[in-house]
Write a structure and sequence with these properties.
about 180 residues; alpha+beta; Alpha-Beta Plaits; 2 domains
């Protein structure tokens, strides 16, 4: 008979609250130099250089923008062909609609507009889903002051005293520890 035991793992999340974005950026660099892994940084506005200091990769939203724009362009080509050439061809100004290619310049503006429309809207939806900002999403922010004027660094570590000392050395206004039990 196989005996399986489940161990509970205790996890400490240490939070350091900062009042200035420059102090926060220097603190992030100090933590990275010490080899302490930062889980998350919460800021009320984008901090220039924070992504590089954290070692984050380039976002792929621009690649998705191209895909969404190409989708919009192809869809509009199909729509204009179907409506203006196949389904209801019209003789406008004495110029009959024989093929889509002969009339492509007339469709340039709607194709461009629909390409931009699809890219912008699908990128916005992707961003909201990826960031968890869609309606009904549970808030992940551990301190509501970070939506106003404070900056927060979250670190998950077993070395609580070392991390607390690093927070104090780097100029944190507040340091708090929360213990989580993972089953």
């Amino acid at each position: 008979m196989l005996n399986i035991s489940i161990m509970n793992m205790n996890t400490n999340k240490i939070y350091g609250l900062y009042g200035d974005d420059d102090v926060l950026l220097n603190a992030v660099k100090s933590f990275m130099n010490e080899g302490v892994k930062i889980n998350e940084v919460y800021t009320p506005f984008p901090v220039h250089g924070l992504d590089k200091a954290l070692g984050l990769r380039k976002t792929r939203i621009s690649d998705l923008a191209f895909v969404y724009g190409a989708y919009g362009l192809i869809l509009m080509i199909i729509i204009t062909w179907y409506m203006m050439i196949y389904d209801w061809p019209q003789d406008i100004g004495g110029k009959p609609s024989f093929t889509w290619g002969e009339n492509a310049t007339a469709f340039a503006v709607p194709m461009f507009e629909f390409t931009v429309f699809c890219a912008a809207h699908f990128m916005s939806i992707t961003y909201l889903i990826r960031c968890g900002l869609y309606p009904g999403a549970k808030a992940k922010n551990p301190d509501p002051r970070t939506t106003d004027d404070k900056f927060l660094i979250e670190i998950e570590s077993d070395q609580v005293d070392k991390v607390k000392d690093l927070f104090v050395e780097t100029g944190a206004e507040e340091v708090s520890v929360r213990r989580f039990i993972k089953a």
